[in-house]
Amino acid sequence: MVSKTINSLRREFRPLVLKCMPYFVMSYYFMEVLYSAVNTPLVGRERAIVMDVNEVFGHFYTSFDVLLTIGAIILILGTRKEASGVTLLLIGRVVHRLFFSIWTMFFYFLFNDSLDVGSLLLLMAAKINLREQRDWFQSKYHLLLLGGRVGLCSLFIIWMDEGVETVFSIVSFGLLVFISLGFHCKLFAFLAVVALLYHDVFSNHWSMLWGWNDTLLSIQYFSLLFCKIGGFLMLSQLGGGWWSVDGYRNRNGGKWQKKGNYRIIKTQTSA
């Protein structure tokens, strides 16, 4: 009775997560747009200073970035062309990194962007899953799961690099190994959400959410937290896919089951 109740709740929870979490992921990009739109003079001036160009070009680039992101959000959430929307976001991200990266912190930005890309790839996989097109796009679907899983693992590398707590570093390493390999991927993805809440909300890092004089900036950091949570919750429902330990075990289990059924049928026929 209890197991049936749990299974029914899980069946109801799964589509809800896959429908809602894309909005969690895109909330980060929406807040980027909102912050740039509200603080256009400041953002444009800052970017012009960083690029060492005229202030007009800084404002032009800011407007271009805002319009590009708005177009991507509409494509991802409002149409079935989420692949085009994700492509636009990635183009904007690459251009932004080329202009504004601090090259001495290249690997930090690389892992941060990998985390964003991982969430976007899982968003695309969730959309395919909801439309029940997995059989049509099998190879693409499982490649998205692989890329999303590996991209999200960059978060654990960032945590280990921080080296705040020994115990938490061990937890981060464990999550990195199990999720990257896709071993009990759904379980460890859910545990990663718990670790994420501890790291960003209940530890010393809480000041990154609350410790800003600018309310919009605080909301933007909250949206970044939602983006990470959305990625891991989608992974907790979608699983590791073919290219994971779980996928390998499922394929082998299916083969053994087919062999067992064949033997039973053969025995019955002989009898």
UniProtKB/TrEMBL annotation:
InterPro entries for this protein: Surf4
UniProt keywords, alphabetically: Membrane, Transmembrane, Transmembrane helix
Positions of transmembrane segments: 58-78, 90-111, 141-160, 167-199, 219-245
Topological relation to the membrane, as annotated: Multi-pass membrane protein
Statement: the UniProt record of this protein carries the keyword Transmembrane: yes
Record flagged with keyword Phosphoprotein: no
Principal subcellular localisation of the protein: membrane
Places the protein is found: Membrane
GO CC terms of this entry: membrane
Pfam family, one: SURF4
Domain of life the protein comes from: Eukaryota
Family per record: Belongs to the SURF4 family.
Protein name: Uncharacterized protein
Source organism of this protein record: Drosophila yakuba (Fruit fly)
